[in-house]
């Protein structure tokens, strides 16, 4: 997603939106439109970042540049990227997300929770053509953008868009089969306890959650490690990605799904326990 970590506490539902049906509000898109038309020039790769971009994207750098332009133009107009973010698309978004690819095994299936404008899921799909990526996003306005970008960039063979919340993807809904993957990614979606609750059920046993975080990473681990363990996750660790390539490197909290934990059962009421005793 494109939010800063400071917005995470406002998230209340799986996949980055409040629980319940995802309604598209026309006023939402209008209120975020810039006063002036965005310029493709905002997506230009700064010369000083060109070596890092070439390292991370290789021969798919042109494809990455095409996506950056879509973010800086259509993404801004449609309210998925803030106008002030457009000039910082490469350092703050493209390179920051691409660096995470070093933590993903070859040929892995990746599920990107709360994908928003496609960060980091689409960036990873561009940087790593060996990956199979599913972008999980509940809002129609965002999924429409994602579907259009996938088609325009020619990524339909390796990327699909799932409209729904993370819990719906994990359990299956509306006639759709449950989905799971080797790696689950998320960027500025929610605090670690809630994020693990939504994301770990999507990972296969031995799979992992890669949560892109900022300076709050260590504090979140300390605060939420017990919750993560109850959810079947191993000890969270902080990984720095892109060291020596980008400055600063990307901070990632990595959690391996060690155990398959089902939904918690509600405690039995006193009345129900008494009823069972009488039947005996």
Major β-sheet annotation: 7 strands, mixed
Helix share bin: 25-40%
This entry's quaternary arrangement is single chain
Continuous helix count: 10
Largest beta sheet: strand ordering: 3-2-1-4-5-7-6
Strand content: 15-25%
Mean pLDDT: 84
Query: Could you give the distance between the termini?
Result: 55 Å
Order of helices and strands: HHHHEHEHEHEHEHEEH
Shape: globular
Number of strands: 7
> What is the gyration radius calculated from CA atoms?
20 Å
> Which spans of ≥5 residues are poorly predicted at pLDDT below 50?
1-32, 264-280
Structural class: alpha/beta
In short:
The chain is built from ten helices and seven strands. It has 280 residues and is of the alpha/beta class.
List keywords for this structure.
280 residues; alpha/beta; 7-stranded mixed β-sheet; disordered C terminus
Ordered list of secondary-structure elements with their pairings:
Blueprint: H1 26-31, H2 50-57, H3 61-77, H4 89-98, E1 109-113, H5 121-127, E2 132-137, H6 140-152, E3 159-163, H7 166-171, E4 181-187, H8 192-199, E5 203-213, H9 217-230, E6 237-241, E7 250-256, H10 270-279
Parallel strand pairs: 1-2, 1-4, 2-3, 4-5
Antiparallel strand pairs: 5-7, 6-7
Helix pairs in contact: 2-4, 8-9
Explain what the structure shows.
There is one protein chain. The protein is an alpha/beta fold and 280 residues long. It has ten helices and seven strands. It has a seven-stranded mixed β-sheet with strand order 3-2-1-4-5-7-6, with helices on both faces. Helix 2 packs parallel to helix 4 and helix 8 crosses helix 9. The longest helix is centred in the N-terminal third of the chain and has 17 residues. The radius of gyration is 20 Å and the shape is globular. The chain starts with 25 loop residues before the first helix and ends with a helix.
């Amino acid at each position: 997603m494109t939010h800063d970590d400071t917005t995470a506490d406002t998230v209340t539902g799986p996949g980055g939106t409040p629980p319940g049906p995802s309604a598209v509000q026309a006023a939402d898109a209008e209120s975020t439109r810039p006063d002036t038309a965005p310029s493709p020039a905002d997506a230009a790769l700064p010369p000083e970042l060109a070596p890092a971009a070439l390292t991370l994207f290789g021969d798919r750098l042109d494809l990455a540049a095409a996506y950056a332009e879509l973010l800086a133009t259509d993404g801004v107009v449609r309210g998925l990227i803030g106008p002030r973010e457009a000039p910082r698309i490469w350092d703050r978004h493209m390179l920051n997300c691409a660096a995470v690819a070093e933590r993903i095994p070859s040929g892995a299936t990746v599920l990107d929770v709360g994908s928003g404008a496609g960060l980091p899921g689409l960036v990873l799909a561009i940087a790593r053509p060996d990956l199979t990526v599913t972008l999980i996003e509940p809002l129609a306005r965002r999924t429409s953008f994602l579907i259009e970008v996938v088609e325009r960039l020619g990524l339909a063979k390796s990327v699909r868009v799932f409209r729904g919340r993370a819990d719906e993807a994990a359990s299956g809904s509306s006639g759709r089969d449950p989905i799971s993957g080797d790696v689950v990614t998320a960027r500025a979606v929610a605090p670690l306890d809630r994020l693990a609750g939504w994301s770990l059920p999507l990972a296969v046993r031995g799979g992992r959650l890669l949560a892109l975080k900022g300076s709050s990473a260590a504090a979140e681990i300390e605060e939420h490690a017990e919750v993560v363990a109850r959810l079947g996750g191993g000890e969270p660790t902080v990984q720095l990605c892109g060291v020596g390539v980008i400055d600063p490197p990307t901070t990632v909290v990595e959690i391996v799904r060690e155990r398959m934990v089902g939904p918690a059962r509600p405690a039995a009421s006193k009345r129900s326990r008494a009823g069972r005793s009488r039947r005996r």
